Amino acid sequence: MNIVNIYKNMKNKIISVVILTSTLTLVSSAYSQDNKPQNPPAGSVNVMNISPETMISNRVNALSRSLNLTDEQKQKVKPVVEDEFKKFRELRTQKNLSPQERTAKMREIREASSQKMKTILTEEQWKKYYRPMTNAPVLRPATPAQGDKQPAPATPATK
Which residues of the chain have pLDDT under 50? Predict the structure, then answer.
């Protein structure tokens, strides 16, 4: 072999190694980017990373803001929210229930909580609290309590 052939052969090997290394680097870089957890959209919350205490606190704070609860009412509402949260959590662990049974149980839990809330809230607060619940089919109590009139479901506005 002459020196020119050796040089060309070595040059080809070096180019091959550089191309192979570059390709492997690009592929591994692309793969690692695909497997990174994607950032959630701004303003969204990953509920799986929130502790139960935080969820309960957030719920009580939301109720407090929307219903203008007094400090005394907040202290009474918190155990109701905690109990409801605990019961919903237990319900999620019951894998043997059909979707219909689960929905019925959720309604029972929500209705029991609603009745407890009714004893805590003023009539005006109750109307604000109960109205949004009647618009959500899953959260709607099965039957109104005696003496209560269930508000008519909201109908979409037509143009």
Answer: 137-148, 150, 159
CB 114: neighbour CB atoms within 10 A? Answer: 21
User: Is-contact 63 77, C-beta < 8 A?
Assistant: yes
- Determine contact, residues 110/141, Cβ cutoff 8 Å: yes
**Residue whose token pair is 């959630």:** 40
- Residue closest to 141 by CA, chosen among 116, 119, 111: 111
* CA separation for the pair 67, 12 (Å, rounded): 77
Predicted local confidence at residue 72, as pLDDT: 93
CA dihedral of 24, 30, 34, 40, whole degrees rounded to 10: 150
Q: What tokens does 156 get?
A: 């979409």
Contact (Cβ atoms closer than 8 angstroms) between residue 122 and residue 141: no
The domain segmentation of the chain, as residue ranges, is 70-141
Distance CA 73, CA 66 (A): 13
